């Protein structure tokens, strides 16, 4: 974008830089909080907390929608005092973002065993009554949250889960210590630093030019089909992982692939989903399903998929068991929608 290409464009550039500037200051602020424990502790004073219990976020329901309430530090301290807990537990909280006005947002789990305080996990029903909400399994609530809350809560849950599972150094066996923001853990005895991890997963929508290939695992809800997914093996490139996964799961060789988008996916652990379109030659479409990985796989026509997308409501479809697709928030849905709307041009060799 140029600053010298006429009035209309200059106006656009002005807004572009204003937006960029807000984003940059926010990013730099979060970076500072991750690096500086004192700054992070100070940010808690004016910050807000999302609460969890055993990795289930506190949600309040209004109609068919869920929303995630935030609590100030003062409210949180009062709550802990009411339940006979010390405020040391607040040190277990993790930084998950901030508002444009730099109100820092944290997440704290009241159900997991605390590494900062000797207090046991807090009783769920009593807390729910006090907080006028319910700790709801994230998978159940995710599709009824707005996109912003869904993204914040999945990040929060992933980070809380990682800390819960990485309390000891795998080299020394000593307890590790989290920094204030929760962006890392350090072993005090040998100074090894542990950072939160995500596993890269490729998700591929294979097409033969007119149809696309969808598959299901036996663990999927009844009737749901999705694109092929698989964890990357160590040492693999994205292209190699796509080629191997498609060969392993359905016995086909893809010849071209095109990157589409990526998404953080919290289930069952943190994955970075990397979504691609891929093609096979029209004459080489015979599927050999690997029954150790999949329950079924098949080619679906453009019409079949477009119809399923139009009436895609997991709640009713699941009940009647008809063919249906992953919900909107899943990157598989975006990939399938992209294919229905505009079959991608094949550009990159696999
Ligand atoms: N967001 C979406 O749209 C979407 C759609 C489909 C799948 N997914 C996710 O993709 C992930 C991978 O899909 P899959 O189950 O078909 O993978 P997969 O085909 O690689 O099969 C899973 C198996 O891979 C092995 N494995 C290798 N590395 C692993 C690791 N780091 N963690 C766990 N298991 C590992 C295990 O034996 C496991 O049973 C799943 O966790 C699923 O939740 C997301
Ligand atoms: Mg798979």
From TrEMBL:
Which is one Pfam family of this protein? Answer: Zn_ribbon_NUD
Q: What is its main location?
A: mitochondrion
Q: Give the residue range of the signal peptide.
A: none
Q: Which gene encodes it?
A: NUDT13
Q: Which reaction does it catalyse?
A: NAD(+) + H2O = beta-nicotinamide D-ribonucleotide + AMP + 2 H(+); NADH + H2O = reduced beta-nicotinamide D-ribonucleotide + AMP + 2 H(+); NADPH + H2O = reduced beta-nicotinamide D-ribonucleotide + adenosine 2',5'-bisphosphate + 2 H(+)
Question: Which CDD domains does the UniProt entry name for this protein?
Answer: NUDIX_NADH_pyrophosphatase_Nudt13
A GO molecular function assigned to this protein is:
pyrophosphatase activity
Subcellular location(s): the record lists:
Mitochondrion
Q: Which PANTHER family match?
A: NAD(P)H PYROPHOSPHATASE NUDT13, MITOCHONDRIAL, NUCLEOSIDE DIPHOSPHATE-LINKED MOIETY X MOTIF 13
Q: What does this protein do?
A: NAD(P)H pyrophosphatase that hydrolyzes NADH into NMNH and AMP, and NADPH into NMNH and 2',5'-ADP. Has a marked preference for the reduced pyridine nucleotides. Does not show activity toward NAD-capped RNAs; the NAD-cap is an atypical cap present at the 5'-end of some RNAs.
**GO terms for cellular component:** mitochondrion
Q: What is this protein called?
A: NAD(P)H pyrophosphatase NUDT13, mitochondrial
Q: Which organism is it from?
A: Neomonachus schauinslandi
Q: Which UniProt keywords apply?
A: Hydrolase, Magnesium, Manganese, Metal-binding, Mitochondrion, NAD, NADP, Transit peptide
NCBIfam families associated with the record: PRK00241.1 (NF001299)
Residues forming the Nudix hydrolase domain are 196-323
Q: Please list the cofactors this protein needs.
A: Mg(2+); Mn(2+)
Source organism superkingdom: Eukaryota
Classification via InterPro entries: NADH_PPase-like_N, NudC-like_C, NUDIX_hydrolase-like_dom_sf, NUDIX_hydrolase_CS, NUDIX_hydrolase_dom, Znr_NADH_PPase
Query: Where does the record place a coiled coil?
Result: none
**Enzyme Commission number(s) of this protein:** 3.6.1.22
């Amino acid at each position: 974008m140029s600053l010298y290409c006429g009035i209309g464009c200059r106006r656009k550039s002005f807004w572009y830089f204003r937006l960029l500037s807000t984003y940059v200051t926010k990013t730099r602020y979060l970076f500072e909080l991750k690096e500086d424990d004192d700054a992070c502790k100070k940010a808690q004073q004016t910050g807000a907390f999302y609460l969890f219990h055993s990795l289930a976020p506190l949600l309040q329901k209004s109609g068919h929608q869920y929303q995630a309430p935030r609590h100030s530090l003062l409210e949180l301290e009062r709550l802990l005092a009411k339940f006979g807990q010390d405020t040391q537990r607040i040190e277990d909280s993790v930084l998950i973002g901030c508002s444009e006005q730099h109100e820092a947002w944290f997440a704290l789990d009241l159900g997991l065993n605390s590494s900062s305080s000797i207090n046991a996990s807090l009783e769920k029903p009593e807390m729910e009554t006090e907080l006028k909400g319910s700790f709801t399994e994230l998978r159940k609530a995710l599709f009824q949250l707005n996109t912003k809350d869904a993204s914040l809560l999945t990040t929060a849950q992933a980070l809380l889960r990682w800390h819960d599972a990485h309390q000891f150094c795998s080299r020394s066996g000593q307890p590790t210590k989290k920094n204030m923001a929760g962006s890392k853990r350090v072993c005090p005895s040998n100074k090894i630093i542990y950072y939160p991890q995500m596993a890269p997963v490729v998700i591929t929508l294979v097409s033969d030019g007119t149809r696309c290939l969808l598959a299901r695992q036996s663990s999927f809800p009844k009737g749901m089909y999705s694109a092929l997914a698989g964890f990357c093996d160590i040492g693999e490139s994205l292209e190699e992982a796509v080629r191997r996964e498609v060969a392993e799961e359905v016995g086909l060789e893809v010849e071209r692939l095109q990157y589409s988008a990526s998404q953080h996916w919290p289930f069952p652990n943190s994955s970075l989903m990397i979504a691609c379109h891929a093609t096979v030659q029209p004459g080489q479409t015979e599927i050999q399903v690997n029954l150790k990985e999949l329950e079924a796989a098949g080619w679906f026509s453009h019409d079949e998929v477009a119809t399923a997308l139009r009436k895609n409501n997991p709640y009713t479809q699941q009940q009647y068991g008809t063919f249906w697709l992953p919900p909107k928030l899943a990157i598989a849905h975006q990939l399938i929608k992209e294919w229905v709307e505009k079959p991608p041009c094949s550009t990159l060799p696999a």
